[in-house]
Amino acid sequence: RIDYAGGWGSPLQFGSGNVTVAGYTHFKLSIFGAPGSAGKKVNIGINGADTQTITIVEGEWTDYAFPIGSLTGAAAITDIILKEFSGTGGFTIYVDAMGLN
Questions:
Q1: Tens of pLDDT along 7-51?
Q2: What is the pLDDT of residues 46-73, one digit of tens each?
Q3: DSSP state of 95
């Protein structure tokens, strides 16, 4: 569960790891938009660069998959960030099934 209470926040941030991406082609995750999240945007970032922006779908699980090359050119993932995009906050999402394929 991620509660975006304020704008530009990153309340879900994994860091200090080092996961090699060799042999994987995609980073995936599933997001459920809680009430009030329809149309809100979240940036997906790896290794300090939030390169993908998604629009939240309220009331259902939505699967996302991004080519690793569109997120990072590095050989390893050192951090993952899900950052509120609009600067307004005030919504909640649930994240599941995050991983590499």
A1: 777 766 666 678 899 999 999 999 999 999 999 999 998 888 889
A2: 888 889 999 999 999 999 999 999 999 9
A3: E
CB 77 within 8 A of CB 54: no
Cα–Cα dist 79/19, whole Å: 9
Q: Would you give the distance in Å from CA 85 to the centre of its chain?
A: 11
Q: What is the 3-state secondary structure (H, E, C) of 15-83?
A: CCCCEECCCCCEEEEEEEECCCCCCCEEEEEECCEEEEEEECCECCEEEEEEEHHHHCCCCEECCEEEE
Q: Tell me the two tokens of residue 37.
A: 């999240």
